[in-house]
């Protein structure tokens, strides 16, 4: 009984199809990653700004204009976490860089 395997042409066709699908998929994944980063940035900015409004109401403060000082004070008073503060700063930096 003769064993039947794949021919070289069949293997090349399969590799070509896999390569073509990969080329079509990679740009889509990149754009999805960028969209996810934008949505995450938008969400963290919204959360920190909402907490900032709560901070101003509860602490009776006014807008000092010094973002790092305010973020540090908000962290120390448990309005936001260190991770949120860091993510907020990175999101704002990305937004500034995208705007240039």
UniProtKB/TrEMBL annotation:
A family per Pfam: N_methyl
Name this polypeptide is given: Competence protein ComGC
Residues forming coiled coils: none
Domain of life: Bacteria
Main location: membrane
Keywords noted in UniProt: Cell membrane, Competence, Membrane, Methylation, Transmembrane, Transmembrane helix
GO BP annotation list: establishment of competence for transformation
Tagged with keyword Transmembrane helix: yes
Residues spanning the membrane: 6-26
UniProt xrefs under InterPro entries: ComGC (IPR016940), N_methyl_site (IPR012902), Pilin-like (IPR045584)
One Gene Ontology cellular component: cell surface
Family note: Belongs to the ComGC family.
Membrane topology recorded in Swiss-Prot or TrEMBL: Single-pass membrane protein
Localization of this protein: Cell membrane; Cell surface
Species for this entry: Granulicatella balaenopterae
